[in-house]
Structures are given as structure tokens and as C-alpha cells.
């Protein structure tokens, strides 16, 4: 009986220890060098710790008030140093390697986001929770993500495959290869990326390449950008099934292109639109 009570008390103590937030970590001054990192920090309640960020970090609305210190073109190191960060959260794909190396040279701690696998979003949330002393909130968000993506996967797991061309950018025309998370999202919707076997992750292609690939659906991501996107007139190529059947699907790039909880809202929307196209594709022409 005494042993049982000891184990019970110890278990309760460990449980309470895990739930106690680390006030020191919650006071860290953070510079977040990618929009998805900013969004994930807000998701776990650590948004107020961000003292500097980059262009396009615009969600939630409060993120627009954070000091900007650069973007893809480079980081303004003088501005970064003036913010006196305790921690820099970076994404190697989103920042110049030389900028990140110089930040490390200044002795500032850098932690890197691994935004490569859709299924690792929960891992990313939990990692940020550990770094900011917000483990409980991060765990809740991670479980919510895991449950929702499981539901979406189950919903479309037995659907017929649809040939998809994801028009990432119109001019120059670019798409996605098999190693991108957009390709992973297309797979979940039971789409078959017609350019999955490209040699690079983001290949530049031509209209002729699309004609040969014969996608049944063309997905057009609508993205906020300072650069106005060109609009491609596909009507001269009715030999492409997607053109013949008018299967052009618009999706929200701000959701799909970010390694965050909201990615699942974009995924759910894209899967539903691809599913609606299945009915059209199956109809006798």
C-alpha cells in the first residue's frame, strides 16, 4: 500500500512538472526568419516573444506589427543585432546561407525549422513548444493537427487517381516535384502529380511539357505577391484534358504553401475540389 501511494505521488509530481511553464523560456526575445515559423509561434501562444521577422509574415494580423529585418533577398544584420535576440528561428530554404553563418558568428543561438514533410508539422510545433516553454499548448496543437490530417487521409484514401498539374508560377512557368510538401498534399487528395519525376523540386517547364503530360486537372494557387502574376490562356490547347473539360481549380496558396496548422484548411479545400473534378472527368464526353 505504501509503495502504491509513493508511485501515485511520484506520477502526479511528474505530471505537474511537465505542465509547469518555464518562465525564462517564455521571456526569450525571438527573431523568426520565415512566415510559417511566425504563424506556428502564435499558434502555441508565443507570438508576443517575436521581436523581428521577415517579409510576408502576415498571419495572424498581429504579426504585421513585428519589425521587418529582410526577406528572401537577405537579412539586414544590423537591424537584427539591434533587436538583441536571445534566439533566432530560421529555415535554411528561406534565408541565405551566408546570412545564417554570420548570425552564428555573432554567437547568437539559431534553431532550424525542418519544413519538408507534411507529417512533421506536429514535430515542429512540439519543438517550438520546448524552445519557448509552452509544451502544453504545443502538444494540444500537435494532437489537433494529427487528428485532422488523419480524417482527411481516410476520407480520400479509396478515391480514384486524378492526373494533376500544379501551376506553381505562370511566368516563367514552374511546378513542383516529388520531394516537395505540395506533392505530398496532392498525394493525400489521391492526385497524381504529372511532373513528380522532374529532376528538381521546382522545375521550370513549358506549355509543350504540359500538353505532353495531359493533366486532367490544372491547379492554380492564388498567392499574395508584390509581383503581379501573368495569366496563361490555355484555350489554344484543348488536347489537354483539363482544358477540354474546363478543370481549372483555384486554391489558397497562403494556406497550402505554409508549414502550419492552416495548411490543413488548404488541403481540405483542394481535396474537395479535386474530388468534384472526378465526377466531371468520369462523365462520358
From TrEMBL:
Keywords, in A-Z order: Signal
CDD domains: BtuF (cd01144)
Signal peptide: 1-21
Record-annotated Fe/B12 periplasmic-binding domain positions: 29-278
Keyword Acetylation part of the UniProt annotation: no
Record PROSITE patterns: FE_B12_PBP
PANTHER family, per the entry: MOLYBDATE-BINDING PROTEIN MOLA, VITAMIN B12-BINDING PROTEIN
Name the record gives this protein: Cobalamin-binding protein
Organism: Pseudoalteromonas prydzensis
